[in-house]
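DM between two lab members

TW: hey, do you still have the 50S ribosomal protein L6 entry open?
JB: yeah, one sec
JB: this one, 189 aa:
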Amino acid sequence: MNALVEKVVELPKEIEMDVKRNRVKMKLHGKEIERKFKVKHISIEKKDSSVLIKADSDKKSVLSIMNTISSDLDNMANGLKFGYECKAEIVYSHFPMNIAVKDVVVEINNLAGAKQAKKAQIVGLTTVQVKGKEITIKGPDKQAVGQTAANLEQATKIKNKDVRVFQDGIYIISKPKLVMQAADGEKSA
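TW: and the structure you got?
JB:
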């Protein structure tokens, strides 16, 4: 592939990285994230502690995909080093919802008085914690954390009712953001 445009993404040296074709695998502290980039005109190579992204075209669409891959690689490295966190809130007016986390599924009981339990899938290495009316979703993969939060929100949608009246459900109150751990143990974002 004759590269017309190249972009280098610098990654921390402590992250173990493996690149095969357009599949990137990163490891740190026993956590592993793997992502496959199926894109024409772009190739990905490992170069020391960095990743080289090459494109054989300088079209705007190809360059934007290159930048997206670059951002994805940065997010993967930051997620392994620090982690991502997302918050959701349980909202109900009359029937209190019961939420239970079971392996890779979150079970939602008594949504608007329904007898049938709703289920939401937990994606990847994501963990879900429920404290009172607040749900905290944490994990090293930003996309998996966001998808788990979206699964919770989608599972509690009430269909065929007026959404202005029936507002019971789980709602995302903060999108996935990087959790920096300070030296004294305090969180900051």
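TW: got it. The first strand starts at residue 5 and ends at 10. The chain has two helices and 15 strands.
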